[in-house]
Amino acid sequence: EGPQLFPDDMVTDQPERQVCAEFIREKLLLCLQHEIPHGTAVEITKFSERDNGIVDIDATIFCEKASHKGIIIGKHGDMLKKIFKVGIPAALQMAITAFSNVFVQSYINYFGDNFMSGWTAFSKINQIVILPMQSLSLAITTFVGQNLGAGLGGRAKKSVGVAFCLSAGTAAVLMVPMMFFAPHLVAFFNPKPEVIRFGTQLLRIISPFYLVYCVHDTLGGALRGAGNGKVPMICTLVCLVGFRQLYLYVMAHFICNDVIPIAMSFPAGWLLSSTLVLIYFSRTKMTDTRLVDA
Predict the structure, then answer these.
(1) Dihedral angle at the C-alpha atoms of 246, 251, 257, 262, nearest 10 degrees?
(2) For residue 84, what are the CA distances in angstroms to 21, 25, 61, 281?
């Protein structure tokens, strides 16, 4: 087993500025057509947090041809507003969620080296399921945005159900062998019996909740494609940051400071966030908004 190169809570080795820049460039690909977005680059020139928690971000978009500048800006800056309307909430969501995981790690560290190693193995293995779901979420964002822009609201709405079925089906197909072979998978990372026991417990208890996570990811991606990036961001920050921290504090100090109840903070946050997003999505007419025009 080689040395651990990054901390357990580090989800990327890229700085926050680079993450935000890539989110904005992703929305350029979504909102613009043909060759224009492939000739653009984004530079974050300001990233600062105020005392009240609001983050100020200034970004510069570079384009390959002078004629593309007007297309990117749009009439009265409409296109630029659309790009930032979706890109900035998604960037803030990822940055703040990653930062909050530092506090989650402090609760994990309390249980010692064996559980920390089991948690590390679990975190690596669960990416097998998480990454396809996140890819499908990005795909539905693009598909919904383009179809609403073309006036195909029915097709956009139908695609959300298809994306969820694909996401849930993929999660189920990957989840079953992962749970069955959990001890062997954990042993790849650390052969110690205690580490294997903890890692196997985590995989078999938390894995079924990936089906809940599919709701959060798929509907959140669809809402962003419809130009509503604020609701997925708020649900994520409230449930996966605020609620999770509250859950951990109450569980650790007042109820049961044991490994499994602490680990359940993740599926508990997924369940709450998925419920809120599902309620909002079911009461919202997605075709009322569009991110791009035909």
Answers:
(1) -60
(2) 11, 10, 11, 22
- Return all residues near 190 (Cβ < 8 A) that are at least 6 apart: 1, 117, 118, 121, 196, 199
| Strand stretches in 55-132, DSSP E | 55-63
Run of H or E residues at 83:
helix 78-109
Asked if 292 contacts 82 with a C-beta cutoff of 8 angstroms, the reply is: yes
**Per residue in 165-191, pLDDT tens?**
999 999 999 999 999 999 999 999 999
Residue 104: HSE in the Cβ half-sphere, 13 Å Cα cutoff: 27
Distance (Å) of CA 281 to CA 31, 85, 194, 204, 237: 22, 19, 43, 30, 17
| Amino acid (1-letter code) at residue 202 | L
The region that residue 176 occupies, defined by phi over 0 for left and psi between -120 and 50 for alpha, beta otherwise, is alpha
Please list the alpha-helical segments (H only) found in 126-227: 127-149, 153-180, 182-189, 193-206, 210-225
* pLDDT > 70? residue 32: no
Report the length, in residues, of the chain.
294
Contact by Cβ (8 Å): 96, 103: no
One-letter amino acid of 23: F
Q: Which two tokens stand for residue 24?
A: 């904005």
Phi and psi at residue 3, in whole multiples of 5°? -70, 150
Q: Which residues contact 255 (CB under 8 A, 6 or more apart)?
A: 261
Cβ distance 267 to 212 under 8 Å? yes
Question: Residue 269 CB: number of other CB atoms within 10 A?
Answer: 26
Q: 5, 26 in Cβ contact below 8 A?
A: no
Distance between CA atoms of 64 and 28, rounded to whole angstroms? 13
Task: Catalogue the E-assigned strands of 123-189.
Answer: none
Give how far the C-alpha of residue 193 lies from the chain's centroid of Cα atoms, to the nearest Å. Answer: 33
Specify whether the CB–CB gap between 31 and 82 falls below 8 A: yes
- What is the reported pLDDT for 233? 85
